[in-house]
Design brief:
The chain contains 6 helices and no strands. It is an all-alpha fold and 195 residues long. The chain is rod-shaped and about 130 Å long.
Length: 195
């Protein structure tokens, strides 16, 4: 019976989705697009200019790490938490229909970041890195101590038939040497006489 293959997305497709999502956040951190302001999360602790630099740098580094697949689980979770908390602080202090729709948009983007690694198994997570993928052994070798021991080859026992043939040959060669004149030579038959 032929089993139907279900369509599935390979690693290249998942990498492209992750790059598109990460490029949006990277453009957001460079102020190329309008949207989330990450600096609002740090404005309570830092001056306005420093909070803007810290927020943009953190968003840029996390989005670059997600795009490259470097420590994908940690980077994606950190980016999603940063986006969620910043949007929560920015949009839900004073609730308006516009702020609620902006919060909903940021929440959808944060869950899209989480979905970039949730569907991957352990082996696919290792292969998810765009820049630093190296071939690895599938099974780790067990690390056990090896105690070498000397192996001495055993004397091989000859088969009984071979031993009998060797004994018979040894007897005939010894008797030929001792009594060369007493033995009659066998009559040689010409096998080519019929030609």
């Amino acid at each position: 019976m032929i089993k139907k293959q279900r369509p599935s997305m390979d690693q290249t497709g998942l990498n492209l989705l992750r790059i598109v999502i990460g490029s949006y956040f990277m453009a957001l951190s460079l102020d190329l697009v309008a949207g989330l302001d990450v600096a609002t999360l740090f404005r309570q602790m830092l001056p306005h200019a420093v909070a803007d630099i810290v927020g943009s740098t953190l968003l840029l580094c996390l989005s670059a790490a997600v795009m490259a697949g470097y420590q994908l689980r940690l980077a994606a979770l950190s980016l999603a938490l940063l986006v969620f908390c910043s949007s929560l602080v920015q949009n839900l202090m004073v609730v308006t229909p516009e702020s609620l729709s902006a919060f909903w948009r940021d929440l959808a983007l944060a869950t899209a970041v989480l979905l970039t690694y949730l569907t991957l198994g352990p082996r696919a997570l290792r292969r998810a890195s765009v820049l630093a993928h190296r071939a690895r052994a599938r099974h780790a070798l067990a690390k056990t101590s090896v105690n070498p021991r000397r192996i001495t080859p055993q004397a091989t026992q000859k088969r009984p038939v071979q031993q009998e043939i060797r004994n018979a040959l040894a007897v005939t060669t010894v008797s030929d040497r001792l009594h060369p004149a007493t033995q009659e030579e066998p009559e040689l038959k010409n096998i080519f006489s019929n030609m």
